[in-house]
Each structure stands twice: as structure tokens, then as C-alpha cells.
Amino acid sequence: MTKKWFRIGMASVFILSLALRFWGLERFNTLVFDEVYFAKFGNNYLTRTPFFNAHPPLSQYIIGIGIWIGSHIPFWHDTVNGLTGSLRSPWTYRWLNALTGSFIPLVVGAIAYQLSYRRTFAILAGLFTACDGIFLVESRYALSNIYIVIFGLLGHWFFLLALDNQNRQRSFWLVFAGITFGASVGTKWNGLWFLSGAYLIWIAAWVIHLINSFPNPKLFFTSPSLKEAAGISQDSENSSQQSEVRIQDSGVSTYFPSSSSSQTPLQNLTQLNIFQMLFYLGIIPAFIYSIIWIPHLQLDKTYGFIAVHQQILKFHLHLGGNSPNVHPYCAAWYKWPLMTRPMAYYYQTAERITEPLPVMGPPLPAGAGQVIYDVHAMGNPFLWWFGVAAMLFLIGMLVSQVVIPWVKEKRFSLRATLSVDTWIALYLVINYAANLLPWVKVTRCVFIYHYMCAVVFVFLAIAWFVDQCLRSYYQQLRALGITITFIILAAFIFWMPIYLGLPLSPDAYKLRMWFNSWI
Fold first, then answer.
1. How far apart (Å, rounded) are the C-alpha atoms in residues 411 and 1?
2. What number of CA atoms fall less than 13 Å from residue 10's CA on the CB side?
């Protein structure tokens, strides 16, 4: 793919993302889901009204800035309400989130490109992200989760750019990585997992480097009963390495694990020492997180910096267990990957499409409403399911590179130079685990939107897999890649009405609710 077509492709992904997020942004003249908190809090900062914030305040600052700018734009004020505490148009407290969310597919695509320098991989990653439902829903309302994600992803992109440069340029990008990682944590505490992912991949790189720095590392952990005095024969070693090398003809691969001839940023991880990591990705994020709190603490002087964190922790610890008795949409972490319990952010019924929806009020009695408006925080099912399969494939690929030599030759073996795709697999698996596994120990009620930080790496995983298929020698694999892409796009179109809150008949609504647990 040429650079021109790459730019056209990424621009098209952005335009699609932008159009979907702004289309009918004022459709519901009310507060949808947690807008009852975040839109109000954003307005409170403008009206200088003190309040307790159960999360770090950065996203509410941004929403407040959006309200202020939107209030000074002389259009899109056809509908207004006073639910935020001031008379506002829904557009004013939603537009900046919609704009911000439109950039997330571009950032995901940029990370994919920086991981591999493959343009098709980058476009697929951006396209799949643009075709996900929960990111679309979260971007269209005054909610905070898109800010955790975009700042965390920017942190990773800047981190990769730093690895791709030297000296002052490297320091420049590391500073920006530290700032954006701090901003992610300054949105919600679970933004910290993005930062932990950067540390874990760096640690993994050093572990691999140290293992291979041992004399004769190919015999490291060799079974004593089978250890040969002269070592493994050179012919055997060469044969083992050649089996992992990608067979190429005119740049088209036939097998997934690639050769190690290309150099990508992840292979430069050991160029960073512990002092650089602690300063750029430790001190700087902590400093940014601290200064984010200053405006809030000046507004609400009830608690100081330490005390407000104690109160926030107390608030979350007393939210109750992860049970439907606490909230009907509570969903433990293990329910997220297969999307067994999405949640409704808005549900309203009407007798006809032309009937105006109430600003406040319950739906009509069962059977009375002929038109259903539902905004469902639900991912693209096939994108998520295929993505989980791709992530498992990557895990299997990594495990096989250690297990196969152990089973065949009774020795622990790590190649001195890992292939590009092995590094990509390691990066995606580690960051996915870093953003998912901390929730295992969380006992409070959690929801599917807490999975957003992890699922972006699932999107990258399925984009990588499809890219490998499309670049394959074999027609069957290319057909598989095209089929997966088509199914993901078709699924997005099919479920789009419940992402955008478009009017549906009861039958059309039921057609999209495949499982009772989705309702």
C-alpha cells in the first residue's frame, strides 16, 4: 500500500468515526446514564459550585470546557434543558466528547503502525475500532471513559515514538508519554493500568535480554539428563531457527511468525534504563496527576489532597458486591470478553416516531409503546468474539515458542533476537492482561465499560490476525481475512440502531437482543 492510499484510508476512518459520533447528537434532550454526574460536574466547575467528586476530575474539566465553548457557538441550541443545573443544550455537553472519541481509531491505527510499520495493519486496527459499539456510545454522551482510553493510548504511542528515536527526540516523546499517562490516571484510577503495561513490556524485554546474556543461552535450563557436553549441534539450531522464519515471495507471507530481519521500536526497549523509566514514566505522571487536582481542591475545600483520596477510596469500597442485587447491570470481569452482560444507557418508548420524547419520565407501560429508543453500551459482538480468538492465538504463538523446544529437545530456549510479530504478540498480550487482570481482585460492582481499556488491545489483535491473512500466500487464508472483515462491518451496521438510539419496532429490537442477558 502506498503512502497516499494509507493517508486516504486513515482519513476515511476518521471521517466515518466523526460522522457517526455527531449524527443526531441532540436526539435525547435529557441526561443519559452517568451524564447525571459528569455533565452536572462539568457545569459545576463553570458555576463554581462545590461538590464531592468520586473520581479524579480531568474528564469533568474537559466536559466543562466543552459546555463553555458550546454555549458561545450560536447554533445547535434548538433544544435545551436545565438538568445540569443551568439551561443548556444537550449538544453543549456532548460535542467535545464526540470529537475526542473520533480520534481514538486514529490513535489505535498509529500504535499499530508504530508496532510494525505495516500500513494495512494500521488501517484495519483503526477501522475495527471505529466499528465498535461501546466506543461509539461512550463518545456520544458526556461520560469519562473515552478520556481514560485516549490518554492511555496516546501514552503508548508516544512511548513507541520515543523508542524509535534517540537522545533529545527520545526525551521529548518520553515527556509527552509521561504527561498523557498521568492524564489517563487523572481521569480515573484504572488509567494506571495503561502505565503498568508500558512497565511490564519493558521488564519483559530486559528479562529476555538477561536470559540471552548468559553464556550459551540456548542451554539455559537444559534438562541435566539430556544435556550434551558439546552443546546442541549447529545444524539442529539452524533447522530450528529456519522453521520459524517466514517464507516470503514478493513480500507475501505464508506463515504467521515473521522473520527477525526488520527492526521496530519494541526491539529498542532495553535502551531505556531504570532511571529513565522512573523519571519519565514515574515522576512526570505523578506530577501531572497532582496538578490536575488543584482546580478542584480550590473549588471544594472540604478535603485536602490526601483526605479526598481517602474519601474516594471509601466511596468505592462501599459500593457493594458484584451482584445484580446491587445493580441490575453488574458484570464481573470474566463476563466482559464474551460480552455476556452489556447494559442499557437509555431506554424509552413512544406510540409513534413523530411523538416527542419526554425530558424526564419512565417508558410507557409494557405493550403500549410501538417505538423503542434504546442506547445500549454494547460492543460489536463479532469484533469482540473474533478478537478474543485472535488474542488466544497470540498467547498460543508465544507459548509454543517456549514449549515446543522444551518438549522436543528437553531444553528451555529463547531466541536472542525475537521476530517482529513475536514482539507484537508480547506487547498486545501483556497490555491486555495489564488492563484486565487487576479487575479480578475488585469486589465492588463493576460494569462492561470498565473493559474498554483492555478491549482496544483485542481490536489490535484481530487487526493483526486479519492483516496476516490478507498478506498470506494461501488463497484460503486471504479469503478468511476478507470474511472476518466483512462480518465485523456487517455486524456493526446491524447493531448500529442500538448504538445510536434510532427508533425500532419491538420486533426489530428483539431481533438484536440475541440473549436474555443482553436486555
1. 42
2. 23
State how far the Cα of 237 lies from the Cα of 363, in Å rounded to an integer.
Answer: 69
Beta bridge partners of 472: 253
Q: In this predicted model, what pLDDT tens digit does every residue of 59-87 receive, in sequence order?
A: 999 999 999 999 999 888 889 999 999 99
Distance, in Å, from the CA atom of 382 to the CA atom of 486, rounded to the nearest integer, reads 10
Question: What cell was used for 100?
Answer: 475526542
CA distance 181 to 172: 15
Q: Which three cell numbers stand for residue 290?
A: 497532582
Query: Residues 228-238: pLDDT tens digits?
Result: 433 434 444 44
CA distance 130 to 377: 15
Euclidean distance between CA atoms 61 and 139, whole angstroms = 16
Strand, coil or helix: 208: helix
Closest CA to 339 of 441, 427, 452, 435: 452
For 263-321, give the DSSP string.
--GGGGGGGS-HHHHHIIIIIHHHHHHHHHTHHHHHH-TTS-HHHHHHHHHHHHHTS-B
Q: Which residues contact 365 (CB under 8 A, 6 or more apart)?
A: none
How far is the C-alpha of 154 from the C-alpha of 143, rounded, in Å? 19
User: What pTM value is reported for the model?
Assistant: 0.90
Nearest to 350 by CA among 333, 373, 321: 373
| Residues 175, 116, 122, 180, Cα dihedral to 10° | -10
Nearest in space to 201 (alpha carbons), one of 268, 262, 141: 268
Nine-digit cell at 276?
A: 529513565
Grid coordinates of 490: 456487517
90 close to 29: Cβ distance less than 8 angstroms: yes
Residue 330 corresponds to which cell in the numbers above?
453488574
Instruction: Quote the cell numbers at residue 13.
Output: 476512518
Q: Is the pLDDT of residue 221 over 50?
A: no
Q: From 265, 108, 262, select the one nearest 173 (Cα to Cα).
A: 265
